[in-house]
Amino acid sequence: MIYIETCSFKINLNLRVLRKRDDGYHEIHTLFWKRRSPEVLEISPGVARECLRVTGARIPGENLLTRACAFLRARFGDEALPPLGMKLSKCLPMGGGIGSGSGNAAALLRWFERFSGLPLPKPSEIGKLGADVAFLAGCRDLALADGIGENLRWLDDSLDLPGVVLFPKWSSGTKEAYAALDRIRAEAPETKSPTAAEARFESLSILKQLSERKYLGLLPNDFFVCNIEQRSCYNKAYTAFEKSGALAWGLCGSGASCFALYRSYGELKTAISSQLLNFSWLQKMMAME
């Protein structure tokens, strides 16, 4: 039997880097929003030999799906998860900051929970696979996240806002982005982030205003300063978002993609067809509906 699982990706409606811990990781606060991905994972359990085939893109290094299988077997034993034949239809650029690889692994975890009847480990354990996996494997679309992204407070709220994601021709590495932010903050201490309490208040305020479809403009993301330092074209994109009638816009994760949200599907369609969002540096544009 072949199981077909839809994948998800995330948008950070804000992203604050609070401090660098003694272990080298950074404490963050963010408001996660889950969105449906065009990527699809096909799973065939009980094959003679486990295999993974990826179409549409080449993924360098170890695929997160392979790590997720190893994680589940280490947690539940080999008998709980038979060898899998997996086919991943990949279409989203990597290094865009939306956690598409995490969404692939989360799809596998959600399937395993239904297939085995076993509850998934706590988000703090799943977070060992990646900070975004724990959120994307959850059953709700919104959450406040602290720690390195694995401490989740699920929200019952919902958002129904269409949007667009612009993927540039370059990618952004998370490790490099944090190093750049540390350097900028060392050179300019005034660029410090708000406190954890202030960041949580900011998140809830953003969620309330977006729910009411109020204009917000540029959403707060501490990595914006790193990206704009290297790529001035982000300012042109944000200007285009504003001219096209966007409600809010911002940077995806630590970069490199950016997004804009609109009040209605009609406004989104007009923005995409207006040519305002076409840039020479654009690799891919994806509508969020």
CATH architecture of the largest domain: 2-Layer Sandwich
Mean pLDDT: 92
Q: What kind of sheet is the major sheet?
A: 6 strands, mixed
Q: What is the count of distinct domains? A: 2
CATH class of the largest domain equals Alpha Beta
**Strand pairing plus helix content: what structural class?**
alpha+beta
Q: From the alpha-carbon coordinates, what is the Rg to the nearest angstrom?
A: 19 Å
Backbone shape: globular
Number of helices: 9
The share of residues in extended strands comes to 25-35%
Tell me the total number of β-strands: 11
Low-pLDDT segments: none
Distance between the termini: 30 Å
CATH level-3 fold name of the largest domain: Ribosomal Protein S5, domain 2
Helix content: 25-40%
Order of helices and strands: EEEHEHHHEEEHHEHHEEHE
